[in-house]
Amino acid sequence: MTAKRGMNSEDLYKMIFVSDPQMSPDGKQIAYVKTVIDEKTKEYRSTIWVVPADGSGKPRPFTSGPKRDTSPRWSPDGTNLAFVSDRTDEKQVWIMDTSGGEGLQLTSMRRGASNPVWSPDGKKICFTAQVNPEDPLDELQKPLDEKAKEAEKKKKLEEPTLVTRLKMKSDAAMGLIGNSRSHLFVQPVCGKEPAKQITSGDFDHFGPAWSPDGNYIAFCANRQKDPDRDPWIVDIFTVQSDGGEPTKITDSKGPSTSPAWTPDGQYIIYAGHKREYGSATLTKIWKVPSEGGESVLLTGSFDRSVGDSMAGDSHFGQSENGPIISPDGRTIYFLASDSGNTSLFAVPLEGGDVDLVLGGKRQIFGFTIDGSGTTFAIALSTPTIPGDIGVFQKGPSKECLLTAENKELLEEVYLSEPEPLDFKSKDGQDRLGWVMKPIGYQKGKKYPAILEIHGGPASMYGCNFFFEFQVLAAKGYTVLYTNPRGGEGFGQEFLHAVIGDYGGMDYEDLMTWIDFAACHDLIDESNLGVTGGSYGGFMTNWIVGHTDKFKAAVTQRSISNWISFHGVSDIGYTFTETQILGNPWKDYDLLWKHSPLAYVENVTTPILIIHAEKDQRCPIEQGEQFYVALKKLGKEAEMARFPESNHELSRSGKPVLRVHRLNQILRWFDAHLQKNQEDYDLPL
Fold it and tell me: pTM score, two decimals?
């Protein structure tokens, strides 16, 4: 028997990620996406798997191949499964008989297809596809050949790009957005007829949902005259399933997304808010007549935001968060993050009290429901389970875990279980933090500790698996984390508290936590490190300019200068004004006051700057400014630049680069934080 060991960064290659659990209509099977890292290519590979919902059998592969198959969707009668695959290079919608056989390619869109949704009678599928106004109409359903791709590539390199949109960048695209827009198409499943485009215009359309009678499709869009000027406005529309002029159903002052029809077709349920607290407003569940009218708030008494806000680095792919309506139309189910956990909740169609359906110290990051409304497919994670698929039954309230995807890896390694600690903030509010002991910890010994700070700031740390934290613990570090104000999971007041106060009470929350945690008998308070990404990177930069408490810092995908950040980010043209409450031409002093770069002369902490070169969310110039200033001032600083990577480097970036990133973090902390090898039961 092989002796157990600590987890290392290269274990990422052994990780298996699950997502998008889809319950079959009869409640007997669950389809889900399984993503692995190819042993030879070191690239992600996703396939569709199916597991019996009653636990009577092992998971079996439904698709195979070296590419990515995602978005499994059961036909209404359960005889077919639609999915998206890039096996022919461009993503297209495919269909397979659930009894087995060869897949049938349903779409052949010029720029790919995604998000398949079955019609209630199972005869059609609605999907989204990108349409470039320069594309000939008769070639929309002919994939680009190699000659056409080369021509487009050459044009980008040899001709100037004329920009007319306010929102010009996309982090996902790692560059300019281009002229394409997302439109809805309806494709007969028989495949004998071409897909019909049912939306048009210079707008993006997404989130399609069929009416129960199949005559209409609800969708989301910002169809204002200039959508980029106020990108927060998203409305629910309906359009006839064979096309026509869309009807606006909502009159939103903020985002309205995830539409779902009640079984009688009388109402549309959606998630959204009216920006009562600006961009930092809790997302709620609403009901609006399907013919349009006044929206009714259903979760007004629930002081939490709809959706899964848990921060993490061990998931890959999208999963449904709700709202999902019960087959009898009486109940609406949804996920929400609450005090470090993401759980399943329910609210009556008529509104009222929100009930906890399925909770626990964990993250439920996806769910669907069967045709009877009694059986749920769930995707879940705990501090010691990266991600698995389970089933939950109402009534007798039975829950069963159906997969153990990472069993082999987890049997090889020691894991650190976080210990929750309650503490008081500087202004006397109750707070919660976690301490992860280093692997090999000996009682009575003291160890270096690293403070981790999440991004967002509208995110949340909690009871889920965090690969980076486990690697740090395996290398002999105590890992400390908490949720400073400005994050999700603790109510509206908490979420909004950071607006206009970046570096204020959020900083005090973190300092109060580190002072409290440092009193823990295992922590060497003279041997502390700090790291974080995005908002966590901003806060790391801010911390080292305001305290010398930390012996080493690693700042990742950070913001250092709110003045130069404005306009260069894919969200920066709104984010600065909504978060800091100013812009460079009117509020220069205010933006500079909240910029870590303004305090760079105070820095004494050695700092490593990690930044992706194609990050469009927090562009690399933010890291460069901080680095150059530190070096010119004679401070100890290094910069690790990651090629062909965006803001998502730590979560879905190239596996090889994700491993390099972890190794850079370890290298820096190992060089600046002292560890006594004799204080560990296991060799480090």
Answer: 0.96
